């Protein structure tokens, strides 16, 4: 386990960092940072994509009760201004900085690390290699899913609570019929094309 290697080197606490929502057409991208208690790790931590929604919700509650965990959302305005990559790195860095304990090292899911005042280690497929990253993937996913369910209540015609902003046929049909909401990412090609072909008022 990567956390054990870093502990042996003395670079603890270790934060796991992951995101949810890079690909959707709507809603924020959410990053989470988690520092697990090595003596009190929830059982069954795994990549959030391999877990059922019910299991993710249960593990989310356990993580929040047993670990230090923070989730930060980068809103659509930041995504459209800075691009999705930079917005994701910003949210990751903010989540780490907001932890109640300052990590000595951070394990980041993916190829790129945000700028942090500690050691950083990028792990491709890290949510399947590190328990800390797996926990962060769960916190990020559940946090974002809850935000999208709330958005679905505000915009019931779009089905956000079902597709979570991803480019499903249902989502595309709603966009064709109703146009984009303020929560759609206008820098993303499908939304940009829709806006550009819309008739002027």
Write a structural description:
- It is built from eight helices and five strands.
- Helix content is 45%, strand content 15%.
- The protein has helices at residues 2-9, 53-66, 76-82, 84-97, 131-154, 160-163, 169-178, 189-197, and strands at 14-20, 29-35, 68-74, 105-109, 119-123.
- It is of the alpha/beta class.
- It is elongated and about 60 Å long.
Provide tags for this entry.
15% strand; 5-stranded mixed β-sheet; 201 residues; 45% helix; alpha/beta; elongated
Short description:
The chain has 201 residues and is α/β, with parallel strands linked by helices.
* Multimeric status of the protein: single chain
- What amount of the residues lies in strands? 15-25%
Question: Which regions contain 5 or more consecutive residues with pLDDT less than 50?
Answer: none
- How would you spell out the order of helices and strands? HEEHEHHEEHHHH
The whole-number mean of residue pLDDT values reads 95
**What's the helix count?**
8
What is the total tally of β strands?
5
Round the Cα radius of gyration to an integer and report it: 18 Å
Specify the overall morphology: elongated
Instruction: Give the N-terminus to C-terminus distance in angstroms.
Output: 58 Å
Secondary-structure content class? alpha/beta
How does the major sheet shape up?
5 strands, mixed
**Helical residue percent band:** 40-55%
The neighbouring-strand order within the major sheet is 3-2-1-4-5
